[in-house]
Automatic annotation (TrEMBL):
InterPro entries: Ig-like_dom_sf, Ig-like_fold, Ig-like_Receptors_ImmuneReg. Keywords: Disulfide bond, Immunoglobulin domain, Signal. Residues 1-20 form the signal peptide. The keyword Signal applies. GO terms for cellular component: plasma membrane. The keyword Transcription does not apply. Gene3D superfamilies: Immunoglobulins (2.60.40.10). It comes from the Eukaryota. This is Platelet glycoprotein VI. One of its GO terms (biological process) is immune response-regulating signaling pathway.
Length: 133
C-alpha cells in the first residue's frame, strides 16, 4: 500500500473516531453476579459495562459517596457493610458518561443487626407500632 493510501485510510479512521465521540456518551450498565440478593458470607461481583475503548470506569457506593476507579468490585464474602446502592460511569477522552441505573445490593440471611441497620442502609424494614395499655 502506498504512503498516500495509508495516510488516507488513517485520516478516514480518525475521522470516524472523532465523529463517534461527538454527542453524549451512552449510559453504562451495572450488574451483580450471581445476583444483587446475596446471602451473608457468599461471594458477589459488581460489574460496570460500557462501550469498548473506555479509558476509566468509576464504581460509586451512593450512601457513603466512596468510589473506586475500576470496572469491577469482587466481594469474596458478603458482609453487612457492603449493603447499599451502587452506580457507575466511565470516561472516554475528556468526557464522562451519564451514570448507570442504580443497583441495590441486599444481604440475605441472618438479620441480627435489626431495623436501625435497615434504615441506615436505606432499606425499608418491618414497621413496629407501640400501643399504650
Amino acid at each position: 500500500m502506498s504512503a498516500s493510501m495509508a495516510a488516507f485510510c488513517l485520516g478516514l479512521c480518525l475521522g470516524q473516531v472523532i465523529q463517534a465521540q461527538k454527542g453524549p456518551l451512552p449510559k453504562p450498565s451495572l450488574q451483580a453476579r450471581p445476583s444483587s440478593l446475596v446471602p451473608l458470607g457468599k461471594p458477589v461481583t459488581i460489574s460496570c459495562q460500557g462501550p469498548p475503548g473506555a479509558d476509566l470506569y468509576r464504581l460509586e457506593e451512593l450512601i457513603s459517596r466512596k468510589y473506586l476507579d475500576q470496572a469491577e468490585l469482587s466481594i469474596s464474602a458478603m458482609e453487612q457493610r457492603f449493603v447499599g446502592r451502587y452506580r457507575c460511569s466511565y470516561q472516554s477522552g475528556t468526557s464522562w458518561s451519564p451514570p448507570s441505573n442504580q443497583l441495590e445490593l441486599v444481604a440475605t440471611g441472618n438479620w441480627a443487626w435489626g431495623v436501625a441497620g435497615l434504615v441506615a442502609a436505606g432499606l425499608r424494614g418491618p414497621q413496629f407500632w407501640a400501643q399504650r395499655g
